[in-house]
Each structure stands twice: as C-alpha cells, then as structure tokens.
C-alpha cells in the first residue's frame, strides 16, 4: 500500500516538475511582455494543480505557499491586478520559492525561507499591484517577519528600508475567533457524497474531510443508511454521505477549493445553515429534488451526460461533414480548450521501454542491410526490399524522434540560476536564449545539465565584470549571457557566450605555472592558454566563492562532454567576452559507418568524417621525423597516423599494402588513417561501452555486426588528437 | 553455536568454480548465465586482465580474465573453460574461469571472514567457507573443500571511476 502511495506521489512530483516548467515558461513570457489571458491562465493552472496535489499528500508548507501564489495569479487572471513588470518580478521570485518548496516536499532540500516571498505576494494582493516596481521579493532578504502590529492603513504606504509596505492583516487569521460566530453569518452546511468514480480516481474522502477540518469544519452527521448488506457490498463503491458544519466566516470559495479535485459527479452541496436546528437531516437538494435520488442516494446525472453526448455528436458530425464551420455557435466554446489540450497531449512512457524499442529498431535496420547483402543484385532491386528499407527507415526516424527532446529542457533551469547568481554576485545579468527548440536525444540533454551549469556559473562569476568595472570600460553596466543551441550536420553546438572581460591570459598562465600544470618556460599559443581553464585543479578566482572557484568546474565540463563523444571549444577576446562551445553528437544511437580492419580486427569508422580513401603509391607516404609521416595528396601534405600504433596492435604491414583513409576532424583538419582494408559500409547501432564498462579513449563505443561479432567504433576526434600528442587529462605534460 | 550443516539455514546458494587450482565461489543471485568460452573482441587502452568485449544477446559486455585479475597466472583455455556472466551493481561482466563445479547452499553463519593478508588492494575475498564436495563416484568427501567467496562489488570494473567521482 505504501508502495502504491509512493508511486502515486512520484507521479505527483513528476507532474509538479512539468507544472513548474509550464509556470516558468509562462512567467518568462510575461516578463518578456506577453501577458495574454492564455499565458496567465496557463501559469495559474500549473500552480493550482501543484497546490491540489500537495494538499492531497499533506505537504502543508507547499500547499500554503502555492495557495498564496495562486491567489495573486487568480487576481491577475481576473484582471484585478495588472501584470506589470513589478508584479511579474514578484511572481518570478515566488516561483523560485515554489520550486524550492517542491524540492523540500520531496525531502531533497530543507524548507525554504519563504517569508519574504509571501510578504511580497501579500503586498501585491493588498496593493492590487499598484505599487509597481516594488523590489521587495527580488532579494532573499532576511526574512522580516510580517506582523500585524502596524495600524491597519488600507492604502499603500511608503515602503520602509526593506521595501516592505505595512499592510492590514486580519487578526482573525491568527487567533481562533472567540466572538466571531456571534457576529458572523450563519454556519455553512456542507453535504458531501463521493461518487464511485471519485474513489476510482483515488479521491480519498478522508483527505478532503481533513482539509475541511483545517477550515474549522466538524462532521455533524454521517449517513450510513445507504450501506447495503455485506453480501451486496461492492468494495469499490462509495456509500457514505457526510454532513459537515463549517464556520460561517469561511469564504464559500475556500470550501469549494477543497473539492477541486473531486470527480464532478460526486454530490457536493454548500449552503448556509438558515435554520440551525435540523442540521443533521440528510440533505438532498436541488439536483435530487426534480430527478429523485435512488435508494442508494445516487443522484442521476443523465442530463449532463446527454448534453455532453449531444455536444460530441455535433462535433463528430462537424468533422464527418468535412466542412470546417469554425464560426458555428457551439464550436468556439470547446475549441480553444480542446485545441490547447491537444497540443499538450502526452503519455508517460518508461524510458527503458523507449531504449529497448530503439535497440530493437536498430537491430531491424542491421538485419535489413544483411538481408540486402544476401540477395542477388536482381532480387535486391525488386520493389519489396526498397519498400521494406524505406519503412524500416521511417520507423527508425520516428523512434529516434521519440527520444528527441527540445533542448529547452536543459535550458529551462538557467533563468532561475541566473536570478540567484545575480543576487549572489550583485551583477545585473541579462539572458538571451536562441535555438531552444533544437531537438536533441534525451540522453544528451540529461548529460549536459551539469556542464551547462558550470559554464553559466563560470560566465556569471568570472566572465562578467562588476557593474563599476563595466561602466569604467565603457560598457552597459548590465552584463549579457547568450545561450544558444544549433544543429550542424550530426552535431549539436551549445554555446554560452558572455560579453565580459575575456580570459586574462597572463593571469591564467601565471596561475597554471604556479599550480604546476605547465612548466615555467612553456611556450603556449593563446588557444592553448585558454584551454588551460579546463585543466584539472585549475581555478583563477582570487577568493573561493561558493559559486565557482573550487577548481573543478571546467574540468568537469570537459570530461562530461568528452564522455558524450563531444568536446569543448573556448574562444575569448580580451575586453569583449568569452564563448564556450560544447560540440555534441546529435544522437547516441545509430551511425553510418565504414567497416575497416586494423591488424586484422574489424573496426567501424564513422562515415561522416571520411573524405576519401587512397591506395598509396610507393613514395607517396614520407616520414618527416622518426615517428611522424605525411601523405602527398595532390600536392597537399596531410599527416598520417597509424591507428594500430595508437592501439598498440601488432602490425608490420607495409604502408603500400594498406589503405589510407583521409578523415576530416573538427579540431585538427585533415588526417590520414592507415587501415588494412575496407570491408563494408553500413549503418551500425552504437552500443556504449560504459553501459557495462567505462568509456575508453579512442573509441566511441562498439557495435554488433551481422554475424554476432563485435566491432569497435573509432572516435576520430580522439584518435586524431592523439596524433598531436594530446594527453588525456589536460596539459600535464 | 551448535549448528550443523543441516539446520544452519541455507541462507544462500553459491556457484563454485576452479581457478588456479583453488575453489572459488560467487553468490548465485549475481549470476546471469554460464557461457562457453568464445574469444572476445580485444579492447585497446585497457588493463591486461580485461580480455575484451563480447556480445551477450545484443549487450556488449566486458570479459575479464579472473585469474589475472586476482593475481594468479592467466588461465589456459581448454575445453571446460567457461565464462560466468554476473551482474555487479547493475553492470554485466563475464569472468573467465577454469571450470564450473557445482551449486551449493551454505548458511550465512558458516562463512568465516577472510584472514587479513597483505595485498595491494582491499581484499576481493569476502569470506571462506568449507563445503562437502561430491566425488566422481557420487559419494561425499567428508573432509570438504575450502571455498574462497568472492566479493563481486570489489571486482567491479568501474570501481576506480566511482571512487574518483
């Protein structure tokens, strides 16, 4: 049972995560000036659902905070508070706290200090957003307690030094109202009979009654008349009817809120207790009055269903008629909602299942090409085989697209991070993002989170100058960080670009010498100095800040990205800023490869890198030093590397008996690789070596060939880099 | 503690195998399957005891020369050589052993801790246990055999990475 609850709770947290993403996107849009009703309603719905779920699982802090937030959103939605930049700013801060509350509810973080944010929300509510630029919540200021001691001044007063404005707080909220009932309205009588559907949807009545009790409700009657004899009892049906008395001063809306998540066919009535005497009488009112409840107290609900059915009928007819009468009377009433939901319609699928599917499709592709190989050329041309190949390809593309996610998911945490960083560093930082919709394999998205965090922190902390420095340098006091993603061929480029001071190469070099990373007399190019930032144990921060400066950040970036088969490029212009570029593979799954042999063993060379192959003439390959060779390619001398040497394979084959594959590498241009022979060209499914082992330098993974044997996939970039005496961990040599 | 083999509680089953004239055992729960030896695809830039990778129903798994890994002379491949495919912390690996002997049930209480011996790394021997062995003629050898129980987690191929992280 508790497992089940955990499972449901896990779903709730998943929904929270989605809700938070939606809310943040909406708030960001509002910040950017899009304050349309749809956007606001989207944010409202997201926060509302979080509140509802949180209440059901008893996360009181989260519920309380979300509730306050929701109140403000509701007012904004209703047009009572204008969504001015100041209000949006308060809401963004509130959103950050809400995120922390969700983490706290998961047990991953301590309860956040939300007083400042709550006070800011209160203030917005009290002022109806009139006090625009109120900076109250933008800083997680010492949480000044909001007390009601100030004389209740209804209108906005001048903000005090903390930016707080005194406001009226009803003391009734704090103390149980001793004399209130006398003066207040008659108590509410709430009748609640959950439906079978409510139980089926895990609408636990106890939780709702508890929630009502927090409002001061008392159960005055439970109608058990409808419970059938045990032999007829259906354990999945609902039989009880509860009658509760709620203090009269509670707003009707608050009572109704408790029933937000109850299936709509449950009986819920809220009315004033006009005649206090017969409170306990079973209440069967309005709907039942004309239709009559059956013996179990069920109220027929045929009417709405018929309405709905009729509506559906009309919609179906409209579609069947294949004419689009968008302007007709009924359609608009459902169209916007249906349309909006349709865009978001998703189902949750275990990632493991997707991976399995992807693997199977990969195998299918391979079998397909093997089948093609086995057939005679004449059979190969028959229509069935190309058709099968085309279908397989389509399935493959579709399955791949299932795993592809917009990179927005990885970018989404950046705005929050920058807001925090902005507070911590005292720098004003603008964020510009481009290419958020670029689709990348989910595996890649998951793994670039950490590197991206480090890069952003690095840019905010080291890259950007303080406002004073920027003004002195004649720059806009607000720094800008540009985050962009784009696809180029089979690679994804993710850039973090700041317009800060650029890398101080003198200092970097001095630091590297001091830390023993390079020798004192090393002569390095500017690019090599920039690369030192990624060397292990390197950090130039004068003081170790809690943002960056422990000297692990950029090292982590490089190793993470390399583990993904990518690399990091650094480009810096002193005084103008620094750009970090992560170059990542688009997918981790399938590769167009050339099967080659090295010392008899089969390897896969990614075809994307191959320019041409040559059978060297005698004398075409020449030594330029005892351990380096070049090949004369029509007058152009291209360095030649023997992969067999890099891998320590025995190979005494003369170069004239071998083939030279000219490959193009991102980092080092053209390089010739010596291989024994080329066996084949085919698509291969990449199996990562770190699934059961660990990444191996020089290999991009392994694949299973048609005969069941394994061929290792060459990582061209790493191989070529080793031509240039690249040591695996930075410049330690 | 007057427990005998019969009522000591058969807490777990172990697979016993021979390697370098010793008898070793691993927990049955970690065993995925036993395969015949098939020359794996060699890997570059890995320690010598990793003999390569092989295809286990579409999964690429490393094959480890267990004898070398434990510091014994490398196993000679012969007709009864086989590979124990095991699961170590979610990762699969194959261990080359000389011969698989038996599956025996042992009680948790029968396991003695491995004596402290000087080794270059934390012990991969989780404990010692004496089992009665079956003779070729089916009779039990009452003297029994000492089995070295292996600590599979200590044999993880990615342990150094986990420690670095």
Question: Describe it for me?
Answer:
The complex is a heterodimer of chains A (733) and B (165). Chain A is of the alpha+beta class and 733 residues long. Chain A has 24 helices and 22 strands. In chain A, α1 (2-31) runs antiparallel to α2 and α2 packs antiparallel against α3 (60-77). The radius of gyration of chain A is 33 Å and the shape is flat. Chain A starts with a helix and ends in a 10-residue tail after the last helix. A 5-stranded mixed beta sheet of chain B has the order 8-1-2-10-9, with no helix packed on it. In chain B, strands 3-6-7-5-4 form a 5-stranded mixed beta sheet. Chain B is mainly beta and 165 residues long. Chain B contains 2 helices and 10 strands; from the N terminus they run βββββαβββββα. Chain A binds chain B through residues 359, 363, 601, 646-649, 687, 689-694, 696-699, 702, 704, 708-712, and chain B through 40-46, 50, 53-55, 58-62, 91-93, 157-158, 161.
Furnish the topology, listing elements before pairings.
The complex is a heterodimer of chains A (733) and B (165).
Chain A: H1 2-31, H2 37-56, H3 60-77, H4 85-106, H5 115-127, H6 180-183, E1 188-193, H7 196-200, H8 205-214, E2 218-223, E3 241-246, H9 252-258, E4 267-272, H10 286-291, H11 302-320, H12 330-344, H13 351-374, H14 377-380, H15 384-403, E5 404-406, H16 408-411, H17 413-425, E6 429-434, E7 439-441, H18 442-463, H19 467-472, E8 479-488, E9 491-498, H20 505-514, H21 526-531, H22 553-563, E10 567-573, E11 577-585, E12 590-598, E13 601-606, E14 610-614, E15 621-625, E16 628-633, E17 636-642, H23 643-646, E18 659-665, E19 669-675, E20 677-685, E21 699-704, E22 710-714, H24 716-723
Parallel strand pairs in A: 6-8, 13-22, 17-19
Antiparallel strand pairs in A: 1-3, 1-4, 2-3, 5-7, 8-9, 9-11, 10-11, 12-13, 12-20, 14-18, 15-16, 16-17, 18-19, 21-22
Helix pairs in contact in A: 1-2, 1-4, 2-3, 3-4, 3-5, 4-5, 13-15, 17-18, 18-22
Chain B: E1 12-19, E2 22-27, E3 31-36, E4 50-56, E5 59-65, H1 66-69, E6 82-88, E7 91-97, E8 99-106, E9 125-134, E10 140-150, H2 159-164
């Amino acid at each position: 049972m508790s497992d089940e609850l955990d499972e449901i709770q896990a779903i709730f947290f998943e929904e929270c995560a989605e809700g938070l993403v939606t809310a943040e996107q909406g708030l960001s849009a509002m910040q950017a000036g899009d304050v349309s009703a749809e956007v606001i309603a989207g944010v409202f719905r997201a926060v509302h659902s979080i509140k509802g779920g949180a209440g059901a699982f008893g996360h009181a802090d989260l519920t309380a905070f979300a509730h306050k937030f929701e109140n403000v959103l509701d007012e904004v939605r209703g047009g009572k508070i204008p969504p001015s930049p100041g209000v949006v700013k308060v809401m963004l801060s509130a959103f950050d706290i809400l995120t922390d509350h969700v983490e706290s509810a998961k047990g991953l973080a301590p309860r956040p200090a939300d007083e400042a944010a709550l006070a800011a929300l209160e203030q917005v509510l009290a002022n109806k957003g009139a006090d625009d630029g109120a900076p109250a919540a933008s800083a997680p200021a010492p949480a000044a307690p909001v007390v009601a001691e100030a004389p209740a001044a209804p209108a906005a007063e001048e903000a005090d030094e903390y930016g707080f404005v005194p406001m009226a707080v009803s003391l009734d909220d704090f103390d149980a109202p001793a004399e209130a009932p006398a003066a207040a309205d008659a108590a509410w009588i709430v009748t609640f009979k959950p439906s079978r559907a409510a139980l089926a949807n895990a609408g636990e009545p106890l939780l709702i009654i508890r929630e009502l009790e927090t409002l001061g409700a008392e159960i005055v009657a439970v109608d058990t008349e409808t419970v059938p004899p045990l032999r007829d009892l259906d354990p999945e049906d609902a039989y009880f009817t509860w009658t509760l008395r709620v203090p009269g001063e509670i707003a009707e809306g608050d009572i109704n809120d408790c029933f937000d998540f109850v299936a709509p066919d449950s009986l819920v009535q809220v009315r004033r207790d006009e005649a206090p005497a017969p409170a306990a009488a079973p209440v069967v009112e309005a709907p039942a009055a004309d239709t009559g409840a059956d013996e179990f107290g069920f109220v027929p609900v045929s009417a709405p269903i018929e309405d709905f059915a009729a509506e559906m009928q009309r919609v179906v007819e409209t579609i069947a008629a294949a004419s689009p009468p968008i302007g007709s009377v009924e359609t608009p009433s459902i169209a916007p909602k249906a349309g909006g939901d349709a865009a978001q319609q998703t189902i949750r699928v275990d990632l493991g299942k997707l991976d399995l599917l992807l693997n199977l499709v990969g195998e299918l592709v391979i079998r397909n090409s093997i089948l093609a190989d086995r057939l005679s050329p004449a059979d190969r041309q028959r229509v069935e085989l190309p058709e099968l190949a085309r279908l397989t390809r389509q399935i493959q593309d579709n399955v791949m697209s299932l795993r592809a996610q917009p990179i927005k998911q990885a970018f989404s945490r950046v705005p929050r991070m920058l807001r925090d960083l902005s507070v911590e560093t005292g720098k004003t930082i603008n964020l510009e993002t481009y290419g958020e919709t670029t689709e990348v394999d989910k595996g890649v998205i998951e793994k670039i989170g950490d590197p991206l965090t480090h890069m952003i922190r690095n840019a905010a902390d080291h890259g950007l100058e303080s406002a004073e420095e920027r003004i002195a340098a004649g720059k806009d006091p607000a720094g800008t960080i540009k985050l962009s993603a784009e696809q180029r061929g089979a690679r994804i480029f993710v850039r973090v670009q700041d317009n800060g001071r650029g890398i101080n190469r003198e200092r970097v070099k001095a630091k590297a010498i001091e830390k023993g990373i390079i020798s004192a007399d090393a002569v390095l190019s500017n690019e090599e100095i920039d690369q030192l930032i990624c060397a292990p144990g390197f950090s130039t921060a004068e003081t170790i800040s809690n943002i960056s400066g422990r000297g692990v950040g950029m090292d982590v970036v490089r190793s993470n990205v390399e583990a993904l088969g990518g690399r990091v490029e650094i480009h810096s212009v002193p005084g103008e800023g620094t750009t970090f570029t992560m170059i990542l593979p688009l997918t981790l799954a399938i590769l167009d490869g050339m099967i080659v042999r090295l010392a008899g063993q089969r390897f896969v060379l990614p075809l994307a890198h191959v320019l041409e192959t040559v059978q060297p003439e005698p004398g075409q390959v020449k030594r330029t030093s005892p351990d380096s060779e070049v090949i004369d390619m029509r007058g152009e001398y291209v360095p030649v590397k023997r992969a067999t040497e890099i891998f320590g394979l025995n190979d005494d084959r003369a170069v004239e008996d071998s083939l030279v594959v000219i490959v193009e590498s991102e980092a080092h241009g053209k390089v010739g690789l010596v291989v024994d022979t080329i066996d084949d060209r085919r698509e291969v499914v990449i199996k990562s070596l770190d699934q059961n082992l660990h990444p191996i330098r020089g290999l991009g993974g392994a694949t299973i060939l048609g005969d069941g044997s394994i061929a290792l996939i060459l990582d061209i970039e790493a191989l070529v880099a080793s031509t240039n005496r690249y040591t695996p961990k930075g410049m330690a040599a | 503690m007057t427990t005998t083999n019969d009522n000591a509680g058969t807490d777990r089953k172990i697979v016993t195998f021979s390697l370098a004239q010793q008898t070793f055992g691993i927990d049955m729960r970690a065993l995925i399957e036993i395969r015949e030896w098939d020359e794996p695809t060699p890997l570059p830039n890995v320690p010598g005891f990793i003999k390569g990778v092989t295809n286990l129903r579409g999964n690429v798994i490393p094959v480890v020369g267990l004898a070398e890994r434990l510091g014994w002379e490398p196993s000679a491949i012969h007709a009864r050589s086989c590979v124990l495919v095991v699961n170590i912390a979610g990762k699969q690996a194959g261990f080359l052993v000389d011969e698989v002997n038996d599956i025996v049930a042992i009680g948790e209480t029968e396991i003695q801790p491995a004596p402290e011996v000087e080794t270059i790394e934390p012990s991969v021997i989780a404990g010692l246990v004496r089992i009665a062995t079956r003779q070729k003629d089916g009779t039990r050898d009452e003297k029994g055999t000492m089995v070295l129980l292996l600590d599979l987690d200590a044999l993880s191929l990615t342990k150094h990475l986990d420690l670095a992280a």
